[in-house]
Calcium-transporting ATPase (Chloropicon roscoffensis), 1082 residues
Amino acid sequence: MENNGPDKGKDQQAFAKPKDGKEVDVGGVGRSLSRKTRKTSVTSGALREIGGVVKRRLSSFGLGNVEIAFQTNPDEIEKLNENRGQKEVLKELGGIDAMLEKLCVKGEAGIPHDPLNTKTRQNMFGSNVYKEKPPKSLWSLITDEFEDQVLQLLMFAALISTVLGVAVEEQREEGAYIDGIAIWCAVVLVSMVGATNNYQKEKQFRNINQQRDAIDVTVLRSGKEMTVPSYQIVVGDIMLVDTGDKLVADGLLVLGNDLIIDESSLTGESEPMLKDRAKDPFVWTGTQVSEGSGKFLVTAVGERSEWGKTMAMIVGENEETPLQEKLGELAILIGKIGTVVAAACFIVLVASHFSKNSGFGVADINHILEFFIFAITIIVVAVPEGLPLAVTISLAYSMMKMMKDNNFVRVLEACETMGGATTICSDKTGTLTENKMTVIKCWMSGVLNEVVPKGDQIDPMLKDILADGISINSKAHLLLKEDQETIQFIGNRTECALLVMLRNWGMEYKPIRKTADVVKLFQFTSERKMSSVVVKKASGKLMLFSKGAAEILLRKSVSSLGANNEVVPLDDEQRKKFEDLIDSLASNGLRTLCMCYREVAESEDLELVERDLIVAGIVGIKDPLRKETSDAVAQCKNAGITVRMVTGDNLKTAKHIGAECGIFFGDGICLEGQDFRNMSEEELIPMLPKLQVLARSSPSDKLILVRLLKKQGEVVAVTGDGTNDAPALKESNVGLSMGKTGTEVAKEASDIVILDDNFSSIVKSVLWGRSIFRNIRKFLQFQVTINLVALALSFVAVISQKGMPLTVLQLLWVNLIMDSMAALALATEQPTQDLLDDKPHGRDEPLVSNTMKYHIIVQGIYQLIVLLFILFALQDMHDLAPQYELPVKCTLPLNEVVSPSAYSDFTNFCAGQDDWNARCTSLNENYGSHLISMCRITEPKEKELKVPEYTVLKSIFDHQKDEYDKEHEKRERQLYSFLFNTFIFMQVFNEINARKIANEYNVFEGFFDSPIFSCVLVFTIVIQVIIMETVIADFFELRSLCWEEWVGSLGIGLASLPIGLATKVVLKGIEGKKKATKVQPV
């Protein structure tokens, strides 16, 4: 929730880039040193022996010597912090002032801003970092891959096959062990690719988490306030905190202004605790400032803090995102189908084998193992473990890219959810506008000035009143950079605009603020929309200075300061003039701020002094609209996303800005927060579709709006920057906090941090969210197609007695292509602007759309028809493909080969020799009446022949049978090689088809914008060529292809593209007809 006051975030918060100021530059040196030095340790006994004086020498680093006379040690401080703080121990140590002295800290100046001093304190008391769960090594990730039970079963079967192939001489001679070894190699390769993908993903997540945990904090060093990263905080630092800040160290309160801290994250207590130097001075890491401000002495950091001790006991695992869970369920379903097909194939193969072969031997065991391995491999291929992997890769890749688009993702799920957002409730200041506040109009001394007057044109008394109110009733700072011209705003931008106005009058706020005797401070809150301060003047008088929303303070005022410093009572006429003035300024898009004062009597209750005010001045502050905001809002409208503006500005200002950026238009409704919260749910729900602007709203209004929208089934994204925005950020589907101006509480409650506070960056997060969903769909369409085709082909081939058309190694290569490689290729596709032309995908939208189903069915049928044609029909087309013609079996009666001449003729013939045709023709002439087809004798029977004749004829028969089988296998393997190559290239080109799943005609659009996709595609093709045309082919049981076969494979694969295009044309035609046939109004 945006606000107009001090709890509006700080430039020096987390995710801010390094500042140009000198202080921060020096702080950077400390950070670099901390990476180069080693931590040393000193026992408490040694500390006591030297009287608590600890010397730390850094001469080994070439940095000289540093000596700090600490009068305490880590053990003593740990005892102080035990059980959430020991006041008795603190009293024994002499109290807070004594602790400052013991830690060598000057209360007004803090510690020296010296990297050597900082390093010495880190060596003594520890650094402000925490031990992380050690990252898994690549080797451990590889071993994790082998924990898959299906893969283990496959490896076990391959091991038995290898052992039998080596141990049995007959199997060894035939090289039966090669298959087992090759399967092992393939399994290792697949596992290594999967592990490497996981390793890169974990590395990316770790880098992102490190950036998430680093925040910038304000400390007092060498008498100056400066910003340093949280990991540079050391024991002894004086840390400054304000509303919304997250505490990054344990400490003791030195000074507090109504400091209330939420300790629920540490203690579990829901009630915030008021911190008091005397009663409860202990503050803890991980807690957050709910209200007020203060300074505290850091006493423990990192693992020595209470938070660090707790974190050391926690080991967290990342939970799956909803999309990963949904895909995991789909993978299980497909896996079950694959298991059924695998079991059926195994049963059919075993039954077929024993129907053709009698007896049982070692060879039969090997065959059964081969069938078993084939069945297990089908399961490996069928189980699409690449689906969850694709989500992980896509999320990791998108998170890194989103960082470049100023979207820091804190919660993985938000990446997905943002793509389905149907409404965005956005703040105005800094998100829709530039947050560059400038006072351009003002009312003073009874006159509206169209241009802010110069300092010498303002009455001295009025100028002093305004200067005191602006300087003291503010926490903002102006930082003059090294060029002495550029001013950097630190803190609330509205307050900074007032400080600049004061500076232009020739007055400096720092001396006024430093010498002010503040008696009472009233913090700004989004509910109050004002802040006040009671100051004791040098004369002893108490003065109240208030500033805030003009209409709010006008209600609390009873008079105004007119010309010649005359106090004019506010009658109805005067009040109406002021209301018209405020409306006039607001109607021009100006933020109106009223500054009031009055003298306070000593007898008054200081809790009730914000009344009876005197209006000293009213200013109109311009915050120009970001130049890209209007286009970004228009993009959201086009994408089916409703943008609502929720702002603290008054109704007129909100309407003006809303209309300027395109949020408020047509018959839209603009409500004030007070009216909104007073309406019932029944009254509000009918108004929600037209509600576009909520003005003068509070954080509770935003929370109510979010809940109502979610009840209507909306997917709600909400922006917020203030502490009080946390409930709405948590309640929303996606919480978007501001990186520059957001408080730490808001960031902790959010899912995504918008680093540049720009609404156009929110649109980019929508784009990336939709890209993730579409990329997963691309992968899903590709994988389901290849899964169904592989399963159907294997099943049909087996039940039709064609054996195994794809071997185990071939199936493992297919598995590698469609899982790890395809996940990498399709899940990292860059988002395209056309994604914003689609409507948001709803909560219950299925993963597989109707369009995807049609493409899966058409491509699957095409691939299956082609593969079955090759398998069943191509061998019979002798003219087209003579190389696949199988040798024909024939029978030659035994009585025709017993003569020496016939025996000689027969033994000279072997199936597969070059003169095969001639020999067969000769034998046909001699024995034509007895030949069925090709020359082969019938198997001799021992009972019908004498021993010598049987022995000779049996050897002839076995020899001829072996030669025939070799020739048959050669021709069949050539056919299966062509089938395998064609199958792979159909997947390659279908992978290109899968790049566009929304019926886009041009599948090559943006092809070279996705280098990972291109590289994966080239890698797949290169490896396929190597497999087919090198010695590796023997391991895959493949034969080299001729150029005609290569052209055929490529051509058939390429045909997937026009088939995909034709499918899109037909689907678009059907869709057009459906639209045309819709009933038109009469």
User: Anything to note?
Assistant: The first strand starts at residue 54 and ends at 57. The chain has a mean pLDDT of 77. Residues 428 and 647 are 6 Å apart (CA to CA).
